[in-house]
Design a protein that fits this description.
- The protein is of the alpha/beta class.
- It has 2 domains: about 10-150 and about 310-385, 3-Layer(aba) Sandwich (D-Maltodextrin-Binding Protein, domain 2), CATH 3.40.190; about 155-310, Periplasmic binding protein-like II (D-Maltodextrin-Binding Protein, domain 2, 3-Layer(aba) Sandwich), CATH 3.40.190.10.
- Helix content is about 40%, strand content about 15%.
- It is built from 18 helices and 11 strands.
- The protein has helices spanning about 10-15, 50-65, 80-90, 105-110, 120-125, 130-135, 160-165, 175-190, 205-215, 230-245, 255-260, 275-285, 325-335, 340-350, 375-380, 395-410, 415-430, 440-445, and strands spanning about 45-50, 70-75, 100-105, 140, 145, 145-160, 195-200, 250, 270-275, 290-295, 310-315.
- Strands 1, 2, 3, 6, 9, 10 and 11 form a 7-stranded mixed beta sheet that branches.
- The longest helix is centred in the first third of the chain and has 17 residues, at about 50-65.
């Protein structure tokens, strides 16, 4: 569910192959005093990216060269294990590109290596131009190592024809309890033909993590200790239990054949996801134009937060880059200018992290594909309120463990939820070799 980005390999493999990355030493920050005039800056730079993100960057090159005519940009979009190869190149000290795309949620573990360029001195002026939760993902110990690119503010994509058929008003869905009741109504009136959403039993973290963020909960605390045994996690698991017991969730993994086929059938009525999913619907279900709408993500309580984040990415400069000024200028142009951000949004549905772009009239244009609805503006609501989610180098391995545990929990009838969560955290602590937050320990009596 994370914008089609690849998932890189696990931390244990990183630790085996790259022991030097665990005891990082940080170099000097990049300072451009004085900066090279744009028409005199000359360099060849290579960018690693994938899928539509790579196509978007290629599309920007002519526009970039109008300002920097002597900087030759080459985008390598071979996405196969790209982040794995990047981590290996950081360890080797050679072979990395000048600019690298990362999933924003994974950026912290790369920042901690000491192998990315510290761009604090030239990037910190943009801090207020990005939502705090996303800026936090590109910083480490108060230093800046990347710039957020696209983000995935949450909403619910729905099929207008199904809602009309079963007499559902999307504006009446304000809480997750409302959402479940609508799902039960659709399930009953369709004779079981239509489920409300997809809940993949083996990949529940894809929904767990963004909804935990909506609640302000954490998997890790800011010191990297486990914090998943919490009231927020229990509240979210209770929501999952209600959905599954009501029978409104289909056990379908994201972006499988069955999932993509459901976009054009009556099997699934809604898709809670990030703004970027609209581009996926256009790509895989072009003939359904006009039948789609979007309503705000339900809150857990009346008046509660009605958004969160599903995915997104960032751009960084490896420390071994020999053309750092040119690499930075390309990142700055692509991610910190309204013109470039709107071009990428218009052509490739990459939702801007850069807040000044949200003031552009493009956000208020009606979208024929979504029945004339102004979905872009809707997704921008409350992005500044999305809670910070603390990341850890252990995140990917933790997510794998969470998926396995939750799958067994569902298969076992979703009993003893609190015991399951507490035991999962203790097991993860042993497996990952990291501590448990004091708050979590106090809830289980210090054990």
């Amino acid at each position: 569910m994370f914008s089609g980005m690849e998932r890189s390999f696990t931390l244990p493999l990183v630790l085996v192959l790259l022991p030097g990355l665990c005891t990082a030493s940080f170099g000097d920050a990049l300072v451009l005093e004085p900066p090279t005039p744009p028409d005199q800056l000359e360099a060849d730079i290579e960018v690693w990216s994938w899928n539509i993100a790579a196509a978007s960057l290629k599309n920007l090159i002519p526009m970039f060269n109008e300002v920097y005519p002597r900087v030759n940009v080459r985008v390598n979009q071979n996405g196969t294990n790209m982040q794995s190869r990047f981590l290996l190149s950081l360890a080797a000290g050679v072979g990395a590109p000048d600019v690298m795309q990362l999933q924003v949620r994974e950026t912290p573990r790369y920042s901690m290596t000491g192998r990315l360029t510290d761009i604090t001195e030239i990037a910190e002026k943009y801090e207020d131009d990005f939502p705090p939760s996303f800026w936090r993902d590109v910083t480490h110990e108060g230093r800046v190592y990347g710039i957020p690119w696209d983000i995935g503010p949450g909403g619910v994509f729905y099929k207008r024809s199904l809602f009309e058929k079963y007499g559902v008003d999307p504006l009446g869905i304000e809480t997750w309890d409302d959402y479940i009741e609508v799902g039960k109504k659709i399930l009953e009136q369709s004779g079981g033909e239509t489920k409300m959403l997809c809940i993949p039993h083996g990949m529940m973290v894809d929904l767990f993590e963004p909804l935990l963020q909506q609640l302000g909960g954490q998997i890790f605390d800011k010191e990297g200790r486990l914090a998943v045994y919490s009231p927020e996690s229990l509240k979210l698991l209770d929501l999952f239990r209600k959905m599954l017991e009501a029978g409104i969730g289909a056990n379908i993994n994201s972006f499988t054949h069955e999932h993509l086929a459901s976009l054009q059938s009556k099997s699934i009525a809604t898709y809670p996801c990030g703004a970027w999913f609209g581009g996926s619907i256009r790509d895989y279900a072009e003939n359904t134009a006009g039948d789609w709408g979007v309503f705000r993500l339900p809150a857990f309580e009346p008046g509660g937060l009605r958004t969160t984040n599903f995915g997104g990415s960032s751009l960084v400069v490896p420390d071994q880059c020999e053309n750092k000024e040119a690499a930075w200028r390309f990142i700055e142009f692509a991610l910190c200018t309204v013109k470039a951000q709107i071009e990428q949004f218009r052509a490739f549905d990459l939702y801007p992290a850069f807040l000044p772009a949200h003031e552009h009239p493009f956000f208020d244009e009606p979208e024929p594909f979504f029945g004339g609805q102004k979905t872009r503006r809707q997704f921008s609501l409350d992005v500044l309120e999305i809670p910070v989610m603390y990341r850890s180098p252990n995140l990917m391995e933790a997510e794998r463990y969470i998926n396995q545990t939750f799958s067994r929990w569902v298969g076992g009838g979703m009993r003893d939820t609190e015991k399951m969560l507490a035991e999962m955290e203790k097991s993860m602590s042993r497996r990952l070799g990291c501590g448990i937050s004091p708050d979590s320990l106090s809830r289980r009596g210090g054990q």
